[in-house]
Amino acid sequence: AQKVTQAQTEISVVEKEDVTLDCVYETRDTTYYLFWYKQPPSGELVFLIRRNSFDEQNEISGRYSWNFQKSTSSFNFTITASQVVDSAVYFCALSEYGGTSYGKLTFGQGTILTVHP
Amino acid sequence: GAVVSQHPSWVICKSGTSVKIECRSLDFQATTMFWYRQFPKQSLMLMATSNEGSKATYEQGVEKDKFLINHASLTLSTLTVTSAHPEDSSFYICSAREDEYSNQPQHFGDGTRLSIL
């Protein structure tokens, strides 16, 4: 069975601080996908990144960066110089790679990020 | 990019009413769609996998007679909450599966907030 754990329920920071959201996962699959989504108060899910399990390169996109460590089953997300607009719930998710179940996501509990001005 | 339309976005109705939620893939064909449910301040939990032209596959603990899923075409899946009660009040969100090798193998609708009085 797959499991995703986001141990940080809520994080509060002041604007311009850097913040890291942790994600630890469990799976018996040797290949899989990892995702991060942002859910603003309006409720829709905003896709941030997909990473497949055989690509451990870290990725940077503007103020966002992701650190994938297969050895520790972690896929952490860092926001640099946070802004008020970053306030949202962030979900880490896991899915199978290929097969009939790809696209079916197991979500973590979510981390509520509040950025204060 | 690929878009999934979910309708309605908000429903308020009386207990005992049946409510139908539609999920449409607008610019791609989706043989498989997924339905998730999210209670307030909680994570998204997969309810069922909807397959075009065949019966849906329900996750453990989800009542298939309560949550009827129909996927009659390659672009439309519907979720009907039958004889809804206040405990069915939740945020329901669908996703449509696209090409696994695209950057986003699944695309989410904007969700439906269901409130049963």
What is the helix/strand order of chain B? Answer: EEEEEEEEEEE
> What overall geometry of chain A do the principal axes of the alpha carbons give?
globular
Strand count, sense and closure of the main sheet of chain B? Answer: 7 strands, mixed
Number of helices of chain A: 0
- Give the class of chain A from helix and strand content and strand pairing: mainly beta
**What would the principal axes of the Cα set say about the shape of chain B?**
globular
- Rg calculated over all Cα atoms of chain A: 14 Å
Helix percentage of chain B: under 10%
> What fraction of residues of chain A sit in β-strands?
over 45%
How much of the sequence lies in strands of chain B comes to: over 45%
The CA-CA distance between the termini of chain A, in Å, is: 41 Å
Topology:
The complex is a heterodimer of chains A (about 120) and B (about 120).
Chain A: E1 3-5, E2 10-14, E3 19-21, E4 24-26, E5 32-39, E6 46-52, E7 59-61, E8 64-69, E9 74-79, E10 88-96, E11 106-107, E12 111-116
Chain B: E1 4-7, E2 10-13, E3 19-25, E4 32-38, E5 44-51, E6 57-58, E7 67-73, E8 76-81, E9 90-97, E10 106-108, E11 112-116
